[in-house]
Write a structure and sequence with these properties.
The chain has 101 residues and is mainly beta. 0% of the residues lie in helices and 52% in strands. The protein has a four-stranded antiparallel beta sheet with strand order 1-2-5-4, with no helix packed on it. Strands 3-6-7 form a three-stranded antiparallel beta sheet, with no helix packed on it. A hairpin with a 4-residue loop joins strand 6 and strand 7.
Length: 101
Amino acid sequence: MAFTVAEIRPIYADVKQEKIAYLLVEIQGVGLTADLIVSVGQLDVVSGNKAYITIPDPKPVQTVRLTDAKNNRYAEGVIVVPKPAPSATKPAPTPAQSPNP
């Protein structure tokens, strides 16, 4: 069993995107089954090579371990919470000027 992190999507608790409610982490690998035990969050296996981990209230850096108790194997990965994209500040609109002074 092995996996890599394919995508990390933060899901925010508020409209201002200040507080992350949870992370949705897509992983890809081999030997992914519904019998695996995840060290943090919830594991939803889509296929033998694709799964999602939902991590509520994530830490900035989180180690995730998948354990296959039947075969006495495990795989670990590190999840880093992505920093929010800076807000694009729009310039203040300029007042319209009359063509006649």
